[in-house]
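Dear support,

I submitted the protein below through the web form. The confirmation email said the job was done, but the results page showed an empty box. After a refresh the structure appeared. I'm attaching both so you can tell me whether what I see now is the final result or a partial one.
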Amino acid sequence: MRIRALSVPPTDTEVDDWWAVLVAAQAADLPGVPAPGRTEIAGRLRVPGARGRFVNWAAGDGEGIASLLLFTDEGNTHTAFLDVMAVRPDARRRGVGTALWQRVREELLGQGRTSVATTTDLGGPGHAFAQGLGFESVLPLGWYVGEVPADAAGIRVPATPGYELLVWHGLVPDAWAGAAALAHGAMEDAPSGGLDERIQAWTAPRLHAAHRLVLDRGGELTTVAAVTPAGEVAAYTELVLPDPAGPCALQYDTVVVPAHRGHGLGRAVKLRMLAQAAARYPALRAVRTTVADANTPMRAVNEALGYRRERDAAVLQLKL
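What the results page shows now:
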């Protein structure tokens, strides 16, 4: 089986072939879940990651694909993340996945990596393949989906006495970037299982780099923050549209800083976000997000807002 690395940056034909494999694989494995659009795929393949270097491979004549993120941030050069591995349904059980994995493993060992993680849906072919390689679950989680109602733009957002709700499209303004980065640090108490990846300190430049990556890849980003008169970001939520013309958005982080919990801020920022998104993106129909099974408070917030669990998933890890 011929395995070749994609061009840097990939050609239009390579992007089209990559996208075709993903669309076919998702239609077979996750019927009813919209596949990523070409804008999203082109952005991910052509714009370098903020935390490391991607290596992308294609197998045969568009039969399979694999994408590996080699972390370069401090403290994580020993590990990596297998971002994509997919085989076209009509090419399965012919050794395509095995050949791709052998190439991925060679790269990991050649770069001195001692572990690799990936995220997969449970019970599907990807899960079975990963288990066969020795990957083990370190963080069970679920995919949740919230429908965007037709009248979402008129949603009533509960009052937040002592806090103001601010909305930022694109990069967080410089005046708030430091406070927002500090609030991001509150994610450190979120469940991470036994993942062999070290949490990096959030700074204003790191926050802007992460957000700029979304924009450079052709997506759009909105942040809703609950702020205090003293200039603190007490809570925030982020919504990303990888393809601004598409019907689906991804809920990124939602965090309430520990000192400000118990005031309904998580629910307030998410409702304000939903109203904003519905008004700004008329084609938006659904918002998807992942939540760790152990994150009981956030699961409760999502359930109260009408999110339903769509499918089970997990972060898996393999020690090399």
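Response: this is the final, complete result; the empty box was a page-load delay. The chain is about 30% helix and 30% strand.
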